Amino acid sequence: MDNTSQILARSAELFAGKRVLLVNPVADGLTAELPADWHVWTWDYSVWLGLNGRLDTARLTFSHLCPDVADIDAVVLIMPKALERAEYALAQMAPLLAAGCPLYLTGEKKGGVSRAEKLLQPYGDQCEKLDSARHCQLWRAVRNATPAPFALGDWQRSVTLELVDQTIELVSLPGVFSHGRLDEGSELLLDEPGKLPAGRVLDFGCGAGVLATALARRNPAARFELVDVDALALYCARQTLLRNAVEAEVYPSDGLSDVHGRFAAVVSNPPFHTGIRHDTSIAERFFERVTRNLVPGGELRIVANGFLKYPGLIEAHIGPCNVLRENTRFKVYSAVAPG
Ligand SMILES: C[S@@+](CC[C@H](N)C(=O)[O-])C[C@H]1O[C@@H](n2cnc3c(N)ncnc32)[C@H](O)[C@@H]1O
Question: So what does this thing catalyse (predicted)?
Fold first, then answer.
């Protein structure tokens, strides 16, 4: 089991026989091993895929919103990567609890769990560290006065981006990549004027949907599909498309797990670090598999930090890799699938 699950398992008596809302867990055996009436909220589609079948569907929610579970005895948040995502989650979890019920927060020390007191303070009293083991901490606060009901609009940020050829309204939520601004790498990819082919075009790791929105307007013969592993990103991408009057399909996928058929082009600013450690494994797996989703002659166009060793991987799995554009930090690469 993951370290965060192990620290919860060490305090199994806190949850035994209780109705517990568990938020942002790892897809491991925790809910099977600990006897409690678990209800899980995840925004990570890979976790949903991992727990689907192990937990009853009524007890497992993949969404940008917390499920409205009644009569909860306790809530447990596993510290998300982004602090602001923890605040977003707690603001939805706390109103589900009756006063006097416990809110737990656990996570790795390196992942910011030591901010627990500050995070729990708006919702609970008697905040205390219950355990510290396996590089993790477990904190508890007791819910105090009734918190304000959650309103998504209070957390949603909308910004106007001025591109050379168009204005885009971008909708974003806490912890969504480049929250409330345009990433420098994505901007460089959008500076590239080269047309995309007609037909299906995939935006892999769409985030708030900025790439597909701008490129769909420039390439009216392209039919965009947007995928991301993060439910908040998918919600934001749908909102961004809507506000900019762009029609496209948006659906969850862990890597290319739910991407079927072949595309005339795939565009991406691929994820290169997840969590605390730098990690390019998702991008590497994407390069390995993406040719299966490209028509012969179909284009892969990505932007990445210049220091990442992607050209070799692209050449190994797709074809000759051209640099379309670069600045001091980023490069836009293009490769064409063998045909
Ligand atoms: C660098 S961001 C790019 C976001 C957006 N395209 C942009 O340019 O602003 C990478 C995106 O990949 C998503 N991602 C991370 N792991 C993923 C996975 N396994 N499958 C699909 N998407 C993933 C992240 O949630 C994030 O939104």
Answer: guanosine(1207) in 16S rRNA + S-adenosyl-L-methionine = N(2)-methylguanosine(1207) in 16S rRNA + S-adenosyl-L-homocysteine + H(+)
- 156-336 has CATH 3.40.50.150 classification: yes
Tokens read off for 245: 């009057």
Question: So what's the architecture of 3-152 in CATH?
Answer: 3-Layer(aba) Sandwich (3.40)
Cα–Cα distance for residue pair 2/338, rounded to 1 Å: 41
Best of 85, 269, 310 for a ligand 1 pocket test (most atoms within 8 Å of beta carbon): 269
Residues 68 and 96: beta-carbon distance below 8 Å: yes
Contact 189, 152 (CB under 8 A): no
pLDDT digits (tens, 9 = 90+) for 198-245: 999 999 999 999 999 999 999 999 999 999 999 999 999 999 999 999
Range(s) within the chain of domains with CATH label 3.40.50.150: 3-152, 156-336
Ligand 1 binding pocket (C-beta < 6 A) is 46, 177-178, 183, 186, 205-207, 210-211, 227-230, 233, 253-255, 269, 271, 282
